[in-house]
Design goal:
CATH class of the largest domain: Alpha Beta
Number of domains: 2
Helix content: 10-25%
Strand content: 25-35%
Structural class: alpha/beta
CATH architecture of the largest domain: 3-Layer(aba) Sandwich
Oligomer: single chain
Mean pLDDT: 83
CATH topology of the largest domain: Trna Endonuclease, Chain: A, domain 1
Length: 235
């Protein structure tokens, strides 16, 4: 939920799907996974549904302001992955850098810290050339006297409801095949899954053990409903 809400960008969402194979096991020409797909609309301004996709990269920020797992030298590969989304027919492709911060980071550091400046600038320059969107989403790993309390979102002082940073806007186009077929398949699965009525917020996942789509709750559900496989370990 703390991830999907900012990604919706104020739009109403029908569903989010994570770690979805482009070919859904059919052996097609596109063999990559799509990290996040969203079906959104601008209700009440518009009833038209639109789709957005994200490639997700995760880094760690220590409370002293240093960073781990920045993947700074892998920008070329990241652009290749984003181009694969576009070649597949995705109408809006973005990179989102998720930063998991050590407990105490946000009380001692501004975001983004100086250690990220060079990496972020390089990504802005490269991604803007290709028309890809770019977002930053930091979370702090919270702790109190009783132990772990999960992830705390960083809020902007001027807008306490905003938890992400829109660095580059996404250039949108119309969806193309085969993405359109995949989106239709995901939506049909969502609409015809009876379990969705008993889950307040849902996400579609693909279980690699079952080789099937599954519907799980966005909160505190990490195992495949069918085979009980650990979905986090699969990602």
């Amino acid at each position: 939920m703390p991830l999907f809400t900012p990604l919706a960008g104020g739009r109403v969402w029908k569903w989010f799907a994570i770690n979805i194979p482009m070919d859904l096991g059919t052996g097609g020409a596109f063999t990559s996974d799509m990290d996040i797909i969203a079906r959104l609309h601008d209700f009440p301004r518009s009833q038209e549904w639109l789709y957005k996709t994200w490639e997700v990269k995760v880094s760690l920020l220590c409370k002293d302001g240093s960073a781990l797992s920045l993947k700074a030298g892998k920008l070329k590969r990241t652009v290749t992955q984003l181009n694969a989304y576009r070649d597949f027919g995705s109408p809006a492709v973005s990179l989102i850098d998720v930063y998991v911060c050590e407990a105490g980071f946000m009380g001692k550091n501004d975001f983004p810290p100086p250690v990220l400046e060079r990496t972020i600038r390089a990504k802005i320059a490269k991604l803007s050339q290709h028309g890809f969107g770019y977002q930053l989403l930091p979370f702090e790993h919270g702790e109190d006297a009783d132990g772990d309390i999960g992830l705390l979102a960083l809020h902007h002082v001027s807008n306490p409801l905003k938890t992400h940073f829109d660095v580059l806007p996404t250039i949108r186009a119309g969806p193309r095949q085969p993405f359109s077929r995949l989106a239709e398949r995901l939506n049909n699965f969502f609409e015809h899954t009876p379990e969705r009525r008993s889950k307040t917020f849902n996400q579609i996942v693909f279980c690699k053990e079952c080789s099937e789509l599954q519907l799980i709750s966005m909160k505190n559900e990490y195992d495949c409903p069918h085979c009980k496989s650990d979905l986090i370990a699969q990602s």
